[in-house]
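Below is a typical protein record.
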Amino acid sequence: MKPAFTLALTVFFSSFFISSYAQRARSEATDDIKKNFFKVNLTAIALKNYSFQYERAFTKTVSVAVSYRTMPNTTLPFKGAIEDAIAEEGDQETIDAIRDLRMENFAITPEVRFYLGKKGWGRGFYIAPFYRYAEFKASNISFEYGDNPAIQNKIALSGKLTANTGGLAFGAQWALGKVVVLDWCILGPHYGGGKGDFSGASGRPLTVTEQQELRRELEDLDIPFSDKTVSVNASGATMKLDGPWAGVRAAISLGIRF
């Protein structure tokens, strides 16, 4: 099991047991309150992601939740719209790269929610510190290299990037009747580090000149804030990334309480 994934589970279950201890101190008058929530992130579907969250309220103001997100191996979201926008600029090389690209990802996000309103028990405005472990895989990342437009030299890289981040989410959750709930995660910035490892093999041995051209193409690739290490030989190329990683959570989720 990956160390980062183990850390995520440790954070979640530690919060679970701490909250369980606090639960024993509450009055038996709250036993009939529905404290469990299972939700589906509706906004993620548009991005070809499937995201689910389980939340458990332990006191009026504190709950613990864990989210799981996955994207099966697929093409770039909104690929058609992106291709149309690029087509206006006449950049056929970029269009071809987008058509070939395949990607997938998953993430697990444990969090502790603090509800600030009077209703509580999983209702009202909340703030939530969280940790996220994410993996992103990509294949057929196409690069063309060489100065001769009559000869098309191309190589496709594939690989994986992992990221560990922490952040703070702000949102609100409402009960729509006795069973249905609406959860709006308004904003959840997070920051941490990421590492990537990508490689591609050539269909034939590369000449010294081709190796130099390919190395120049990969080294000129603009990846902000990341340290990039490129290695090229007659068999192909590898590219390693190491640097900060940041993102923003936002979601509208619909679920049930029980």
The radius of gyration is 23 Å.
